Amino acid sequence: MPLITQAFVLGAGLGTRLRPLTDDLPKPLVPIFQKPLITFAFDHLIDLGIERFFVNTHHRPERFAEIFARSTYRDRKIEFRHEPNLLETAGGLANIADSLGNEPLLVYNGDVLTDLPIARLIDNHFRAGNIVTLALRSGAGPNHIAFDSGTGRVIDIRNQLGTGAPEEFVFSGIYIVERKFVDLLQRGVKRSVIPVFLELIRRGEKLGGVVIDQGHWWDVGNREAYLQLHRDLLSLDFPSYPVDDPDWRISVHKTAIVDPTVQLRGCSVVGADCRVGEGAILEDTILWPGVQIASRSDFRGCIVRSRCKASGVHRNIDI
User: What is the mean pLDDT of residues 202-216?
Assistant: First the structure.
């Protein structure tokens, strides 16, 4: 199988559906158990042979610098490109064009967590000679993609071309683009890739797709999805990325101090350097790193942001 060695992980979204959790933390950095969300994308891509990462930033870019102080992850270089004005997907791709060379690029949505067998996407892309190839899913989700399995081509998106073709597939947020696609994009212009995809279809260019229903795929879009993801990961045989950090899925971080009288119920997670006082109850509650919970507090269905101090009785809120 031909290799792709560079990937663009989208990190510049505002995370509006997860507010207030994302007020001071970009959504790709929200912790999943003991690990930032975006690192699951990095691990997945490293397993495919990716050696070099690009990440665009916008909201609170300094938080990326805190977590990736050397601009590396597992010895792979990360080139961050800050966007003072949000450029969206096409604008973000154009903004890294000067560093791409002539090699194809794998693009990966930074708020997706998945173990899809992307090798199938790569093989299909090269075999078909596409300019762009989208990884698609069938079943539940925002079914916006009309796909012709006979030709392997995407034929419409959200019926914007008026084809009336059935929209039976979900765009996974993962796709491959050739350098000539990036060259179609105008630098410094805020624009989504979707209108560019539609223009390719109109012109008869090879905008391909491959349906990959194996594996797991989550769009961590809102707090309900965020909490459900943790429940799912407890019950699934999901890859323990990376091999040198097998403890990412532990419920209580080894640096947390939790009084022996604390009751942890359901799917509750206590992050690094947290402190939970005596008699507290945490049920289906996630504490981000550095949280302090007062004694005899009672939290159920809550998410508490990093370094917050909280007490009392709370139900189904973000703090």
Answer: 93
